[in-house]
Amino acid sequence: MRIGAHVDPADPLTAAADRKADTVQFFLTDPQGYKTPQPRADAAELRASEVDVYIHAPYIVNVATLNNRIRIPSRKLMMAHAKAAAELGAKGLIVHGGHVGEGADPAAGYANWRKAFEYAQKDGGLPLPVLIENTAGGDNAMARKFDSLARLWDAVGEFGAGFCLDTCHAHAGGEELLDIVDRVRAITGRIDLIHANDSKDAFDSGRDRHDNLGSGKIDPELVVAVVRAAGAPVIVETPGGVEGQSADIAMLRGRAGS
Question: 47 Cβ partners below 8 Å, 6+ apart?
Answer without folding.
Answer: 88, 89
